[in-house]
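Page 42, continued from yesterday. The earlier attempt failed because a stray header line got pasted into the input along with the sequence. Redoing it now with the clean sequence only.
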Amino acid sequence: MKTMLIGLLCIAAGTANAQIAGGKLAGNDGAANKFYEFYDNSGNKIKNAGEADVNGTPMLKEDWGAGVVKFKNGKEFVDSFMNFSLFENKLFFSKNNQIFIVSVPAEEFVITYKNEKNGYDKYHFRNGYPVYEKNDDNTFYEILYEGQGLQLLRWQHKKITETADYGGVRAREFSLVQQLFVYQVKENKLSDISSTIGSIKKNLPQCSAYIDEYTAMHKVNTKDPQQLTLLIAYLDQKTTASK
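This time it went through. Structure tokens are written below.
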């Protein structure tokens, strides 16, 4: 899967560059999401996807990126202008200033966005994980670290909140909610580790000594995904090597 995704991303990025170089975009013309209309594949408008009266974007990013999707039926899809709705847990692609839902069930996707430094940021999502509270096996999680025994996942969701300024004017906006999880591959177990080192030790009792070993050498802010990535990678390597 990794090889396939890397190869198809190169194709998608190349396609996007060719379309831009030719002076004709196959979708996003730089307009904000509120100027788009959302449709399903039957041509019917999607009522919730745009939420035009809400400030911000329901999507992962304001811009559109080159996407590679692996469907549950084993087929793949590549498009130069894709985005993922954190509000609805759905994939969309853009064409001629219209946004269409990817209706075929997907199990995994990668979207690469151009960043402000003229580099690229890649986001890798997958579903099929165990049920956790309101999240089911169709819920997509971003993969921050993928090891043989442990994975670090981030669940991101946008909800609509209402705010009021000092003048009493009320507005609705998309706000982001995030949780970090560790997934134990062999046990098929998903655990929330967004709180403390103690909660990580509780959910990974087999790693308790290694956690103490690592935290004796490094400070770990459990709210920082980069620091947690280093910790989980260390634990994965230690537990894999000991087997």
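Notes: The longest strand covers residues 150-164.
Reminder to self: strip header lines before submitting.
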